[in-house]
Specification:
The complex is a heterodimer of chains A (115) and B (112). Chain A is an all-beta fold. Chain A is 0% helix and 52% strand. By secondary structure, chain B is an all-beta fold. Classes of the chains: A mainly beta (115), B mainly beta (112). Chains A and B meet through β5, β6 and β11 of A and β9 and β10 of B.
Amino acid sequence: AQSVAQPEDQVNVAEGNPLTVKCTYSVSGNPYLFWYVQYPNRGLQFLLKYITGDNLVKGSYGFEAEFNKSQTSFHLKKPSALVSDSALYFCAVRDMGGGSYIPTFGRGTSLIVHP
Amino acid sequence: ETGVTQTPRHLVMGMTNKKSLKCEQHLGHNAMYWYKQSAKKPLELMFVYNFKEQTENNSVPSRFSPECPNSSHLFLHLHTLQPEDSALYLCASSQETSEKLFFGSGTQLSVL
């Protein structure tokens, strides 16, 4: 079975400061990992994905995510937050070792960037 | 825009009504999905269609009935819903079932 956990309901950060949104996963094989963002009154938008290769993945809007196999984590990061980054962020995982080919999503983390 | 269009954006219905949600994708994708989004809960997969064939049905109650007449269109037919079915219903598509998903803006459903 595949699962993903986003331990924080909400993350607050001041504009200009670095931000981290946490995600941990569980799969039986190798993970295929995603981050999506949802702005108010919109659907989810793809930010970035990790399959293999470099553990630091760069995505849209200056976001990046770091894959850590030993900690089974895939935290989303940005060096300098913007007020416009305020949104709901979803982590998703798919087990490349078999089972469902559909990604499993977390419950989302609300990011609030204060001016 | 993502290329996935959902209508209506908002829907209020009584428990005895019958209504349908519509999704259309203009991306040439062959897989389409229905998700249910409730506050502070994981995004819940409901149905998956791949090349117009239903490949996933995640134990969804029969009061939700999907229809996929072609690769570009997906419907969710609703009847005798319950108040706990109130949620944001999202449609998504992808080129293959393992690739990234493109989401519509959703239909905010309220069941009274």
